[in-house]
Amino acid sequence: MVERHSNDSGWIEVITGSMFSGKSEELIRRLRRAKIAKRKVQSFKPAIDLRFSEEHIVSHSEMRIESQLVRSAIEILEASATDTEVVGIDEGQFFDSDLVGVANQLAVQGKRVIIAGLDMDYLGRPFEPMPLLLAVAEDITKTRAICMQCGSPATYTQRLIASRERVVVGASDAYEARCRACFDPNLGQANES
Ligand code: ZN
User: Fold this and answer.
1) Count of CA atoms in the C-beta half-sphere (13 A) of 187
2) Which pLDDT score is estimated for 193?
3) Residues that place a CB less than 5 A from ion ligand 1
4) Has 25 been annotated as catalytic?
5) Residue tagged active-site, from 25, 91, 165, 176
6) Distance 150 CA to ligand 1 centre (A)
7) Mean pLDDT per segment of 10 residues, for the chain of length 193 residues?
8) What is residue 191's predicted lDDT score, i.e. its pLDDT?
9) Counting C-beta atoms within 10 Å of the first and last residue's C-beta, which end of the chain has fewer, N or C?
10) 141, 172 in Cβ contact below 8 A?
């Protein structure tokens, strides 16, 4: 992982993978290390994600760090202070494609931008804007969970209840991590009727 660059420019790091793969945990770990290094850190999460805590990014393992709720990617740009050195963003998949331009602008301003988010939705489709962020990022970490069916490394998010919504927020018991072989997209699809 890139910890430091030799010039003043910023950069973009993306942490991506399925649910339960430790994305938020890794994001929080990096932000904590930046704070220990006396960097000025700000972190953000979308207002759609109110699980556990409104003022913190919280991992499934109960790690947490203070964060601000924002309703759009542009709000992150507006809320980022000039002297902020590190910007953390959780649940990147809930933002629109403006997040790509926002991340690039923050990096050009010299900030280290760390974004965590789901790489695929419950059907195994790339989850915008994460694929676009992977293209522009200097550093990418793919986190893997453990398949709840067979114990293999898991890269898919299996939805266990039928719904036509792309994301069922705040219902982590409606999902489990699965490997490619055990993943069944039909299970999470509402029947046509
Ligand atoms: Zn499996």
Assistant:
1) 16
2) 42
3) 147, 149-150, 152, 179, 182
4) no
5) 91
6) 4
7) 62 97 96 96 85 68 83 96 97 95 97 97 95 98 97 96 74 88 86 48
8) 55
9) C
10) no
